[in-house]
Specification:
Blueprint: H1 3-9, H2 12-32, H3 44-48, H4 53-96, H5 103-132, H6 139-168
Length: 177
């Protein structure tokens, strides 16, 4: 199936939301390139997962002045990316459950949406903590940011798994024969 054909299958709001989310993701990936160093092989993600002040400080030192600017840009851009991906995932959940009228599917969809909201909330909290953890980093802020990052990643993974379960569920039970 070609991309133009696929785009006509999705509602316009979902297409627009997907476009905005993908564009912001690509910008974040580009901004992350100068943040990849020996101490931060995954760039800003390494900083998110640095659970101690010492790890955070090693990453900040490896970035130097120019890298710190890119780290700030990345975190501030992420404040735009979070509502974009959150809106996209909620629209996608609604779209994928539109032909799933069962009570169980509606309940799973509510849980999936709640997981995505928890992920977005964790992401915003993580950004705030990381912006405050740059001069100088502390163990408490570093660990708190890591916990928020884990909440974000867990919410996104479990939410995505929930979408797979919803789509894989049979609309009508198999006949017993």
């Amino acid at each position: 199936m070609s991309s133009p054909r696929l785009l006509t299958l999705l509602p316009k709001r979902l297409n627009l939301s997907l476009l905005v989310t993908v564009v912001l993701l690509l910008v974040l990936v580009l901004v992350n390139q100068p943040l990849q160093t020996g101490s931060a092989p995954q760039g800003i993600v390494s900083f998110q997962m640095a659970a101690t002040a010492d790890q955070s400080m090693a990453i900040i030192r490896s970035w130097r002045e120019g890298g710190l600017l890119w780290a700030h840009v990345s975190l501030w851009l992420d404040f735009l990316f979070v509502p974009a991906y959150l809106f996209t995932l909620i629209l996608l959940t609604s779209h994928l459950t539109r032909d799933r009228p069962g009570v169980r599917e509606r309940n799973v969809a509510r849980w999936v949406k709640a997981l995505f909201v928890a992920a977005g909330t964790g992401d915003i909290a993580e950004n705030i903590l990381l912006l405050n953890n740059m001069d100088p980093p502390t163990d408490m802020l570093s660990l708190s940011a890591t916990v928020c990052a884990l909440i974000k990643f867990t919410g996104l993974m479990l939410g995505a798994a929930g979408l797979v379960v919803i789509r894989a569920a049979r609309r009508h039970p198999l006949a017993h024969g």
